[in-house]
Amino acid sequence: MTDKPAPLFDTLVIIGPGLIGSSILRRAHEDRRIARRLIACDISPEVRARVAELGIADEVAADPARAVRDADCVIICVPVGAIAMVAAQILPAMKKGAILSEVGSVKVTVMEAMAPLLAAYPDIAFVPAHPMAGTEFSGPDAGFATLFEDRWCLLTPPAGTPATALARVTTLWEMMGARVRDMTVEHHDRVCAIVSHLPHLLAFTICGTADDLADETRSEVLDFAASGFRDFTRIAASDPTMWRDIFLNNREALLDMLDRFIADAQAMGNAIRTGNEDVIVSRIKRGRAIRRSLIENRQA
Ligand SMILES: NC(=O)c1ccc[n+]([C@@H]2O[C@H](COP(=O)([O-])OP(=O)(O)OC[C@H]3O[C@@H](n4cnc5c(N)ncnc54)[C@H](O)[C@@H]3O)[C@@H](O)[C@H]2O)c1
Ligand SMILES: O=C(O)C(=O)C[C@]1(C(=O)O)C=C[C@@H](O)C=C1
Questions:
Q1: Whose Cα sits closest to atom 2 in ligand 1?
Q2: Which CATH class is domain 9-183?
Q3: How far apart are CA 107 and CA 188, in angstroms?
Q4: What confidence category does residue 213 fall into, taking pLDDT thresholds of 50, 70 and 90?
Q5: Mean pLDDT value across the chain
Q6: Which of 35, 66, 76, 109 could disulfide-link to 249, CB 3.0 to 4.6 Å?
Q7: Does domain 187-296 have CATH number 1.10.3660.10?
Q8: How far apart are CA 17 and CA 76, in angstroms?
Q9: What span, in angstroms and rounded, lies between the C-alpha atoms of 56 and 14?
Q10: 67 Cβ closer than 6 Å to some ligand 1 atom
Q11: Are 59 and 39 in contact (CB under 8 A)?
Q12: Ligand 2, residues 23, 80, 83, 132: which to mutate, most atoms within 8 A of Cβ?
């Protein structure tokens, strides 16, 4: 008889088991090679009760400092603006050698807020991660075990991160089904500004613009929304707290991408105004090519 190999972590703690946190829990609950013991901790009593009902964690806790005491790895899955506050609550309680991670959609400001906290705990390895996967839904009911399948997970380890900690977090995300890439926090925030944050800004804005139109036009928007507009409304349905935090924390990169977008949109407007078919057609062809390459890379 062969002994079963030890799981990647003995105790894995998820703080904030919403869409992302509960998806990690679901996957780890299905695949017990990831962790022997799963603990979920949330500030909301309703979320805690729901996670207990769903049965996706071995324990559900209210007090973050108590929840992390035995953890080998803690992943903070709360909105970007609350990550450092949660870290300040748990770092003093974590054991030496443990790994602290988070899944926030913005990295520069999180790293700036975390650096002074982490300086007091040199024995904790901090390995930020960002799974490029999600939906417009939030909360523990929205999660699913295959959310990260074939998606990218971007890691932004600070200089000096122990190689073993980085390797374990890489393995964790690979076991979640993701493909993993390391990058700097600055590069991460610029990439996400164009591929995720600007598209959401445009979606929220176009829905607002349509809604601001006269009553008669608004009814037409609703009547005929089973079209291109509908695709914008999906991401425009996303959580206000999460997106407020993303926009305010990735301010510079997002505003830079917005300026570039406005210039390009104006160029397209000019082409339409002057009847410049070549510019119009080449833009459309570029869009089609990008869509095709996403499909080929299994990202659409
Ligand atoms: N939704 C996405 O598509 C997506 C994708 C990748 C990364 N992210 C990032 O992941 C994080 C979580 O997003 P989500 O969509 O899972 O959010 P969510 O709203 O579904 O879940 C967040 C959970 O955190 C809890 N929470 C909030 N403040 C807390 C605190 N101080 N202490 C303990 N618990 C707290 C909430 O009660 C909630 O259960 C965010 O930082 C977001 O930017 C989101
Ligand atoms: O698919 C969606 O609904 C998402 O909004 C997911 C999405 C994205 O923009 O791609 C949103 C925010 C994240 O940080 C990562 C992924």
A1: 134
A2: alpha beta
A3: 7
A4: confident
A5: 95
A6: 109
A7: yes
A8: 9
A9: 11
A10: no
A11: yes
A12: 132
Over residues 121-132, the pLDDT tens digits come to 999 999 999 999
CA of 23, nearest ligand number: 1
Radius of gyration of the chain (CA): 21
- d(CA 278, ligand 2 centre) in Å: 33
| Cα distances (Å, whole numbers) of residue 151 to 47, 147, 148, 154, 289 | 26, 8, 5, 10, 20
Written as one letter, the residue type at 285 is: K
pTM, two decimals, is 0.96
Helix (H) or strand (E) holding 73: strand 73-76
Say how far apart CA 144 and CA 49 lie, in whole Å: 18
Residue 18 C-alpha to ligand 1 middle, in angstroms? 6
Question: Rounded distance, CA 45 to CA 167, Å?
Answer: 34
- Total number of residues shown for the chain: 300
* Per-residue tokens: 284: 């459309």
Per the structure block, which two tokens stand in for 113? 């807020």
Sequence letter at residue 113: A
Ligand 2 pocket test: pick from 103, 235, 238 the residue with the most ligand atoms within 8 Å of its Cβ.
235
Contact by Cβ (8 Å): 33, 7: yes
Nearest to 130 by CA among 66, 92, 179: 179
Query: At a CB cut-off of 8 Å and minimum separation 6, what does 217 contact?
Result: 210
Q: Mind listing the pLDDT tens digit for each residue in 32-46? A: 999 999 999 999 999
Q: Residue with structure tokens 């870290």?
A: 87
Indicate the domain borders of the chain: 9-183, 187-296
CA of 8 to the centre of ligand 2 (A): 27
Residue in 236, 242, 234, 250 with CA at minimum distance from that of residue 18: 242
Bridge partners of 130, per DSSP, are 154
User: Does the Cβ of 80 fall within 6 Å of ligand 1?
Assistant: yes
